[in-house]
């Protein structure tokens, strides 16, 4: 039997998932990466996208994350997510609503900081829409 890696997904509100799995594929800041048992230690940013949890030879769950950080070592991967929603709970209407709010925020932005925040919200909305498809 192959070794498993402990996966923990934490949001600001609570621990969302904690289980031993075969592999976790994360949308890292520099590209997607897979974490298996005995992975080299690393810390990286997480961009908006979908985390796929593999167990039993298939994707056992998919979770949309709005960004955050991931820490990986030989035994564990911990993702600290800004926001996390199971993909099955997302709808096209939710993504469209997020996109509209983000575009409104961009149109109303007066400072560079407000524009940067609105652009980040647009990236999250686009990633959410892609997750729904």
Explained architecture:
The protein is α+β, with helices and mostly antiparallel strands. It folds into 2 domains: 5-87, ATP Synthase, domain 1 (Sandwich), CATH 2.60.15; 90-132. Helix content is 29%, strand content 44%. It is built from 2 helices and 10 strands, in the order ββββββββββαα. The strands form 2 sheets. It has a 5-stranded mixed beta sheet, with no helix packed on it. The protein is elongated. The model has no long low-confidence stretch (mean pLDDT 94).
Strands of the widest sheet, in order across it, are 2-1-9-8-5
Shape: elongated
Structural class: alpha+beta
CATH topology of the largest domain: ATP Synthase, domain 1
How does the major sheet shape up?
5 strands, mixed
Percent of residues in helices comes to 25-40%
Cα Rg: 16 Å
Proportion of residues in β-strands:
35-45%
Topology, number of strands: 10
**C-alpha termini separation:** 34 Å
CATH H-level homologous superfamily name of the largest domain: F0F1 ATP synthase delta/epsilon subunit, N-terminal
Mean pLDDT: 94
Low-confidence stretches: none
Total DSSP helices? 2
Keywords:
2 domains, 5-stranded mixed sheet, 10 strands, elongated
Quick overview:
The longest helix has 21 residues, at 112-132. The chain has two helices and ten strands. With 133 residues, the chain is an alpha+beta fold.
SSE arrangement:
Layout lengths: L4 E6 L4 E7 L1 E6 L2 E5 L6 E5 L2 E7 L2 E8 L2 E5 L3 E6 L2 E3 L5 H17 L3 H21 L1
Parallel strand pairs: 1-9
Antiparallel strand pairs: 1-2, 3-4, 3-6, 5-8, 6-7, 7-10, 8-9
